[in-house]
């Protein structure tokens, strides 16, 4: 299969669905909706919703019925980036190849655009289309997983320790906590909720969950590496910022070579987790390889 075409195709479907599902940028209040659209349609890779939909395909589920859920994951991710870039957080000025949200709209509107994206996510997953097309218990379980992944025991826990650890000497255990939570939780939830919405037996759900968990870790190790050796033009964000802010990162703690090894090992284990599934899981297999090689 041609992974590039696969990613492009699903990315386009997600963009179309997002435009149809979220309030127009002209809606009142205009500055809020413009700010939401500004970050949402700035050219993100959409890897989380793609992982969700690729899991749905591997489970032979209903792709279209799961689309609002996939979009909701992207809304939560985009909100997390807007808040992550704020001056009181990572204080970044470039994201998705554009000035960050607060640089364009000011801190108050950036905060509120993030709040709105997070809340809209839960409006989408509970909308009529989802309620009619999906099993209500499966949908409720998936919503529970998604909110846990985004909350204080998930992504926000990770973000908190990431910020608190700046400039400090920390142990490998703390780095692991940060990676598992700030990035791993939402990626894990992307595949896990795909399997849950398809009503798969628990042992299958566990395998897709494990795959997502490992891939989520690999994703952040690659993000850390790209912050050291990536091309800012290609990345659409600044590099060298982790070292400048005294962030705890995988290459910072273990070096570049060990990071590359860890990345390969995580992807290898992720592939093992989905080994029993048929060729409809091939896109997931290809995506895991892409985690090692991605340059943005
Ligand atoms: C960046 O995520 C933030 C992390 C959690 C590592 P992505 O690399 O998926 O960013 P976009 O969505 O493509 O901009
Ligand atoms: C971002 O982590 C994690 C979340 C937004 C939840 P980073 O701060 O390491 O990601 P980048 O490098 O700014 O994209
Ligand atoms: Mg951060
Ligand atoms: Mg950041």
Give a structural overview.
The protein is mainly α and 296 residues long. The chain has helices spanning 3-21, 30-40, 47-58, 63-84, 101-105, 107-125, 128-133, 136-150, 155-164, 172-197, 202-229, 232-235, 241-244, 250-254, 256-273, 282-293; strands at residues 94-95, 98-99. A two-stranded antiparallel ribbon has the order 1-2. Strand 1 (94-95) and strand 2 (98-99) form a beta hairpin. The longest helix has 28 residues, at 202-229. The model has no long low-confidence stretch (mean pLDDT 97). Residues 84, 90, 162 line the site of one magnesium ion.
Write the layout of secondary structure elements.
Elements (H helix, E strand, L loop, with lengths): L2 H19 L8 H11 L6 H12 L4 H22 L9 E2 L2 E2 L1 H5 L1 H19 L2 H6 L2 H15 L4 H10 L7 H26 L4 H28 L2 H4 L5 H4 L5 H5 L1 H18 L8 H12 L3
Antiparallel strand pairs: 1-2
Helix pairs in contact: 1-3, 1-4, 2-6, 3-4, 3-10, 3-16, 4-6, 4-10, 8-10, 9-10, 10-11, 11-15, 15-16
The structure holds 3-methylbut-3-enyl trihydrogen diphosphate (2 copies) and magnesium ion (2 copies).
One 3-methylbut-3-enyl trihydrogen diphosphate binds next to helix 11.
């Amino acid at each position: 299969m041609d992974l590039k075409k696969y990613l492009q195709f699903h990315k386009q479907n997600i963009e179309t669905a997002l435009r149809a599902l979220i309030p127009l940028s002209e809606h009142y209040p205009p500055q809020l909706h413009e700010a939401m659209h500004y970050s949402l349609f700035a050219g993100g890779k959409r890897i989380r919703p793609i992982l969700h939909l690729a899991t749905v395909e591997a489970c032979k589920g209903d792709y279209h019925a799961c689309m609002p859920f996939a979009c909701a994951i992207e809304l939560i991710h985009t909100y997390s980036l807007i808040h992550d870039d704020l001056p009181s957080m990572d204080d970044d000025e470039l994201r998705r190849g554009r000035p960050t949200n607060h640089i364009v709209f000011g801190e108050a509107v950036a905060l509120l655009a993030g709040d709105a994206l997070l809340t809209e996510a839960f409006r989408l997953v509970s909308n009529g289309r989802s309620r009619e097309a999906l099993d209500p218990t499966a949908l409720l379980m998936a919503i529970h997983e998604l909110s846990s992944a985004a909350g204080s025991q998930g992504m926000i826990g990770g973000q908190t320790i990431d910020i608190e650890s700046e400039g400090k000497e920390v142990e490998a255990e703390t780095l692991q906590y940060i990676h598992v939570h700030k990035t791993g939780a939402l990626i894990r939830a992307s595949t896990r909720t795909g399997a849950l919405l398809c009503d798969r037996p628990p042992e299958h759900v566990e395998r897709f969950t494990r795959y997502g968990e490992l891939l989520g870790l690999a994703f952040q190790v690659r993000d850390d590496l790209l912050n050291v050796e990536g091309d800012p033009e290609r990345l659409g964000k600044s590099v060298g910022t982790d070292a400048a802010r005294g962030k705890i990162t995988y290459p910072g703690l273990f070096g570049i070579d060990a990071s590359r090894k860890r990345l390969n090992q995580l992807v290898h284990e992720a592939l093992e987790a989905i080994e029993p599934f048929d060729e409809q899981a091939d896109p997931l297999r290809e995506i895991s390889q892409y985690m090692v090689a991605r340059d943005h």
